[in-house]
Write a structure and sequence with these properties.
By secondary structure, the protein is of the alpha+beta class. The chain contains five helices and eight strands; from the N terminus they run H-H-H-E-E-E-E-H-E-E-E-E-H. The protein has one domain (about 1-174). Strands 1, 2, 3, 4, 5, 6, 7 and 8 form an eight-stranded antiparallel beta sheet that branches.
Length: about 170
Amino acid sequence: MVRAAVVAFLMSLIPLASTAQDEAYLSLRDMVFDLETNEEFHAFVDADLPLAVIMETDIEGQTMTLIMVAEGTTSIYFSDGGGMIGGGEYDFVRAEVFQLLGMVDQFANHFSEADTRSRPSTGMAHFYVVRRTGVFRSEEFVEEDMWESGNLSALFRQAHAVIGGLREVQTAQQ
């Protein structure tokens, strides 16, 4: 039931695809990966936290990207356009983000240095963690398997708590 509501919410954010939208998506995504080398940004972030966490999921051939940055920026967007930025302006969303950022280290053994910054395979999902020391990627997983069990299920459920907060923001704005 929860998964169906989340998928319906995510799908409502997706407009029709275009090359320009895909380029904008890649540009936004790359900005988050570039935080690794942005020393000016590092000064504003607690040294114990990752700079950002990204959860990406393939939904019917489109990539949904949830961005959670250590200074509070929270956005969700799609490879073919659409999404929501500015969720981190809401205290209840920020609280969920900081809870996720604080729990990432518990899952360190499920991440390895990212050789590439590829999108997830069809029907799959993965996490990236951006740190001062590099970008790390989790193994890919089937999203449906993570609701109840799996090595990263607690992290996955917390990411969906962030999505739930974004959904509340969108509902309140309508």
